Protein 1
Amino acid sequence: MLPPTLKWEGDALRLLDQRALPLETKYRICRDYEEVAAAIEDMTVRGAPAIGVAAAYGLALAEREGEFAQAAKRLAATRPTAVNLFWAIKRMEETRAAHENEKNLAELLALEAAKIHEEDAEINKSIGRYGAALLPDECAAITHCNAGALATAGYGTALGVFRAAAEAGKKLKIYADETRPRLQGASLTAYELMADGLDVTVITDSMAAFLMSRTKIDVVITGADRVAANGDAANKIGTYGLAIAAKHHGVPFYVAAPLSTFDVKCPCGAEIPIEERAEDEVRKIGGQYITPPDVKVWNPAFDVTPSELIAGIITERGVIRAPYKENIEKIFPGGNA
């Protein structure tokens, strides 16, 4: 059984330290918003939905110290690509504005953060049900990065689809891209799926296309950190290449993401801000250099998959398909996220 990713303890936020997995299970205690911000930045907690939940609790902690505004600005600066972060901050700001004259404001904000936490788990289960219906009774699938319970408040988005399919009695074989440079697929996705008793095989990112040429793959499912108004989707670096390979081999490529991941004010993928991370993430593995120490490195954390490569976006309200701009507009009329 997986340990909980986040746990609110009344005066602190307890975060599962994902950097230590799968070899060690340990928690990090955050007692103020700065500690939450640092935990988001160094990827103690990661995954767009989980980041949003953590930020919400961080704002509840900040209110106790009278530092809500500073905290909102600081938390918004931690990870620029994951739109769930900004969605959660906005929701907490709106809650605060609606109750700003009440004496127990900090408590009300903590309750709102808990509500966001609980809702995320239910949303993921709904995504799972819609996604599971797309899979054949015997299914071979590829996924990238980690879009599971560890990346959310529980259950997962892409991995939630596999969980729901398994719960429905479907037989799955899942290939998990290792996901360079931080290896979330090899360390976290493999750990999660094995904990659930699912059949998982780790492959390097560069093996996926060859695997599709030699083995019948029924589907590719990934998560997303931001979906633009035209259906372009940002996800962990390597997703775009996987989608191209899937298209070439006639394998449907799906994105599983809650509606809070949609940024309808962003017209297309070219406008999505892409976080660039430290060069040593590429130069080193396990703290050891695998490259010349002073070699130049480009390290974007995300890439963008154009909507024409996406067979459908699995949400808690069903599967959105092309034409994406029109169908996303039906869900967010007037561009209101």
Protein 2
Amino acid sequence: MNDSTKALESRRLYQQIADKVRLLIQQGDYREGSRLPPERDLAQQLGVSRPSLREALIALEIEGSVEIRMGSGVYVCSRALRRSALPPSMGESPAELMQARGAVEGAVIVLACVHATPDGLARVQASIDAMRADIAAGRDVLEHDREFHVRIAEMTGNSVLVRLVGSLFDKRRGPLASHMRERLEGQPTWHAALAEHEQIYRCLAARDPLLAESAMRSHIRAAADRWVMP
């Protein structure tokens, strides 16, 4: 495997797709100011999934190569003609992050059920209450959302799992993930997440690992649908 092949494979999928879209623009397929094809058609043309294409388009918007106009489409900006590749600092793929979180936190909550204590449950409930207060006050909910997931991991008694859950959650703060969050999160999103947290808590309090795992995985899938796949 030569160096150029290694470099290509080391780039995240959405970065590779963004490079393909930019190449089409630079080749003259889509001129400055023109609208790109609908997402479904462009994904089919490139042979990629719509979530991965959406991530690529948002990354291109962050760098200024395209403009996404809600309800209208994606339009080419002049900067696309001058760029050669996305910088590596855009962060992880939100779709892949949520997939990883589902795998990890689905396992974590089973262990948390085994080791649940009244004090640990009270700490999880406090996070839910703080999240509810944030929603009512119109404050940013993300910190107490994170706290909820980390406190469940803390009940396992495994510091590695606590760090892993926190680290995966914190990758939502990367440029790509943050931009998607700003576009797509709002009060309805957080009300739905709160209800899911409450269901997870009920399963934890009942010490039912199967129901708790199902509730957590369902929550992560729903969060991905709201955040990554709208």
